[in-house]
Amino acid sequence: MHQRLAARVIAVGVALRGASYSQTAEDAFGTWRHPENGSLVEMYKCGENLCAKIVKVVDAQKTDDKNPDASRRSRPLVGLVIMSGAKKTDAKSWAGSIYNRADGGTYSGTVTVKSKDALDLAGCTAVILCKTLTWTRVK
Asked: What number is the average pLDDT over the span 77-85?
């Protein structure tokens, strides 16, 4: 009798421990490394939404020189908000507009949490024309 009770207590404990590790959309908050250019982007809460800004650039591009608006091409990339007001779309995802410093374009973007240390960021020009990159958390 005591063995069955102990087994049930252990099973409940394991189930609760597993539940505490499930990912949520809020796990997107933090600093992430861009997989192609190595820059660091901070994703943070802005009201009820998600915003993102560049906090470190490690490649040669230091200004927003690809921006189609000539008056913005000299602004520094560090501190540049690339996503603002993204809305939670489900338990693990956010959606909004995202600015791509590499080409100066603004795209429909989604952020989907894969794990505590990985997320997918997708930018789309149309529903079928999307590029998805997996970003890693900076500790």
From this structure: 96
